[in-house]
Amino acid sequence: MVSFTVRMRFDPGDHDEIAGILRKLTEGSRQEPGCVSYVPHFVEGDPATIVIYEQYADEAALDFHRNSQHFQRYAVGGLYQKMLERQVENLTAVC
């Protein structure tokens, strides 16, 4: 299992646009083979920050995600173009 969070900061004025991009990216990601969980969040009290919790069956599923058409369009061509900061935290399950 591959699990991680992605934290991104955006200009607060982009909130609605970012929400729309995340909806489209989430819809495609959740339909991928090997995607266990894909849950984007806005941080309460900080509408300019998102955290996405992602979990994939294995590295091959994660590679599929990163090479998918919707990831290229909505993450690389959308979120990455608007983000001010990005941080990834790789996770190890306790059980």
In a few lines, what is going on in this structure?
This protein is 41% helix and 37% strand. The chain has 95 residues and is of the alpha+beta class.
Number of strands: 4
Strand order of the largest sheet: 2-3-1-4
Number of helices: 3
Largest sheet: 4 strands, antiparallel
As for the number of domains, it is 1
**Which oligomerization state do the chains in this entry correspond to?**
single chain
- Residues in helix, %: 40-55%
In the predicted model, the low-confidence regions spanning at least 5 consecutive residues are none
CATH fold topology = Alpha-Beta Plaits
The SS-based structural class is: alpha+beta
Name the CATH class. Alpha Beta
- Report, as a whole number of angstroms, the end-to-end distance: 12 Å
* Cα radius of gyration in angstroms: 13 Å
CATH architecture annotation name: 2-Layer Sandwich
Percentage of residues in strands: 35-45%
H and E order: EHEEHHE
- Mean pLDDT over the residues: 97
User: Which term fits the overall shape?
Assistant: globular
Structural description of this entry:
The chain has 95 residues and is of the alpha+beta class. The protein has a single domain (2-91), classed as 2-Layer Sandwich (Alpha-Beta Plaits). It has three helices and four strands. It has helices at residues 15-30, 59-67, 69-82, and strands at 2-9, 35-43, 46-56, 85-91. A four-stranded antiparallel beta sheet has the order 2-3-1-4, with helices on one face. Strand 2 and strand 3 (46-56) form a beta hairpin. Helix 1 (15-30) packs antiparallel against helix 3. The termini are close together. The model has no long low-confidence stretch (mean pLDDT 97).
